[in-house]
Specification:
single chain; six-stranded parallel β-sheet; 15 helices; 34% helix; Enoyl-[acyl-carrier-protein] reductase, mitochondrial; NADP
Length: 371
């Protein structure tokens, strides 16, 4: 406020200018802010179509919130959106990224729930474009989170953990201490969140990953998060694992983010009247349901899209309670962010390239603040 007054006193003494600026402390109402952003004007390979541009922010008004973005992850959905294959396609040109954490630096006079210094996450279902340094939003477009979360956890808390949370809660009544969940893509961001939430809630997990040279290291990492079993698809077919599966209660819930042959493996072990939920399709192959699973096991086949769920619930009690519980689990050490590699804004091409690698060990995180 003092800086704003000083600026007016020394540079803008004309009465007509003073009349235009009703609030001395809100210069951003009069001046439009341009923010460095990662923009694409056509769909295609993100490495080729993304570029750094200065984008004019929305006008700041009484209901506005000015954010200084701190960090934003590069999720598979972000890549697909730029490629033009995702379910949401913002008008072009568009700023990339959907998820991220920012700090409130200014609020309009009619904003009630936020104040300067608060940390918020963007509502990822709105495709606001998180890969930028500054952003003007309204308070209904963001969700406040507790202060003090590690930046990697804060930037990634609203999509992957919440996707895992909803799938574990909404499709089957799972009994702690007895019920099990089986999933493929267990090393993904959602998969790691499933492992940790299930462990915290007393559920067993069977976790399938693709065969890879560093499998033992990955297995150790996932077991450290709370996984009961970590196997490749080939190992799942072994006599030893078949015996293990026969001796445990058949999973009530199967979570599929791969499709194709990998989803067939899930049906083989899913219990009678169980549910398989598909939330991704990394193989780009269709999900084929075995006839026997439908007729003899009476399984249910469902789909889940976090963006759609978020749009339907926006800022209702269910969503706010979920986010609060997830953030509390992070603060208590029960839920860790996936391992992240941090990239400066200027190094975005490396970040994008690493995010598109088949066997990336970490999530790529863009650090957007200047500090």
């Amino acid at each position: 406020m003092a800086a704003s007054r000083a600026l007016l006193n020394c540079r803008f003494k004309r009465p007509e200018f003073a009349r235009k600026v009703a609030c001395l402390g809100c210069l951003s109402r009069f001046f439009k802010t341009k923010s460095e952003s990662l923009v694409y004007s056509e769909h295609g390979d993100p490495k080729n179509v993304l570029s750094v541009r200065k984008v004019e922010a929305n006008n700041f008004g009484d209901r506005s919130v000015l954010l200084h973005m701190l960090a934003a992850p590069i999720n598979p959905a972000d890549i697909n959106q730029i490629q033009g294959t995702y379910g949401i396609k913002p008008p072009l040109p568009a700023v990339g990224g959907n998820e991220g954490v920012g700090e409130v630096t200014e609020v309009g006079s009619e904003v009630k729930s936020l104040r300067s210094g608060d940390q918020v996450v963007l509502r990822a279902d709105l495709s606001l474009g998180s890969w930028r340094r500054h952003l003007v939003v309204t308070e209904d477009q963001v969700l406040k989170i507790p202060a003090g979360l590690p930046v990697d956890a804060a930037a990634t808390v609203s999509v992957n953990p919440c996707t895992a949370f909803r799938m574990l809660k909404d499709f089957e009544e799972l009994e702690p201490g007895s019920d099990a969940v089986i999933q493929n893509g267990a090393n993904s961001g959602v998969g790691q969140a499933v492992i940790q939430l299930a462990a915290a809630w007393g559920l067993n997990t069977v976790n399938i990953v693709r065969d890879r040279p560093d499998f033992e290291d990955l297995k150790s990492q996932l077991v450290g998060l709370g996984a009961n079993y970590v196997v490749t698809e080939e190992e799942l077919k072994s006599s030893e694992m078949k015996k293990t599966m026969k001796n445990m209660k058949p999973p009530k819930l199967a979570l599929n983010c791969v499709g194709g042959k990998s989803s067939l493996v899930l049906f083989r072990y899913l219990g009678t009247k169980g549910t398989m939920v598909t939330y991704g399709g990394m193989s780009r192959q269709p999900v084929t349901v075995p006839t026997g699973s439908l007729i003899f096991s009476d399984v249910k086949v469902r789909g889940f899209w976090m963006s759609k769920w978020s749009k339907e619930h926006q800022k209702d009690v269910t969503r706010l309670a979920m986010l609060e519980e997830v953030c509390n689990m992070v603060r208590e050490g029960k839920l860790k962010a996936p391992p992240c590699t941090k990239h400066s804004f200027e190094n975005f091409k490396t970040a994008i390239s690493d995010a598109m690698k088949s066997y990336s060990k970490t999530k790529q995180l863009l650090i957007l603040n200047d500090d």
